[in-house]
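Supplementary Note 3. Input sequence used for the single-chain structure prediction.
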Amino acid sequence: MLAGICGPRWAELVGLRVSDFDFAKKTLTISSSLSEVNGTFTRKNTKTGQTRHIKLPDFLNEMLIEHCDGKAKTELVFSNGKGKALSANNFARDFFRPAISAAGIERLTPKDLRDTAASIAISSGANVRAVSNMLGHADPSVTLRTYTHLFNDDQEKLANAIGEKFDKSA
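The predicted structure, written as discrete structure tokens, is reproduced below.
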């Protein structure tokens, strides 16, 4: 759910610790990632080397509070059955593919969930800067180049909004 709503990269998602959440302020801080090479995990800076703060919707904050209940601040939020980091291949094989198959979805990847988060944010009216910050893009131009097709109906929204302003003032 977090991947499809807030769009962290896979390595950022699997590297999240309980301490990265401030449930009272409903925020997530992404300051590192957990990269996997040949089954060995290494904590690294984010892709851009920058820390970002993401506001969580109430429903997601509540789900995460429940999910993290009883976990120590230093524990990984998402882990395998032994409390260790999630391997991308094992996660896909054991959980993700069976879940999307059960949902009747033909093809979906964890990366697609990041794109879904961008799509939801844009269709909800977020501006490019906000989407860029949420996704951790170094520059909003990256967001525009990647998701420009999702902004296609902005012209119609803009025209309607301007029309409403004039209708109210007349």
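The mean pLDDT is 91. The first strand starts at residue 21 and ends at 22.
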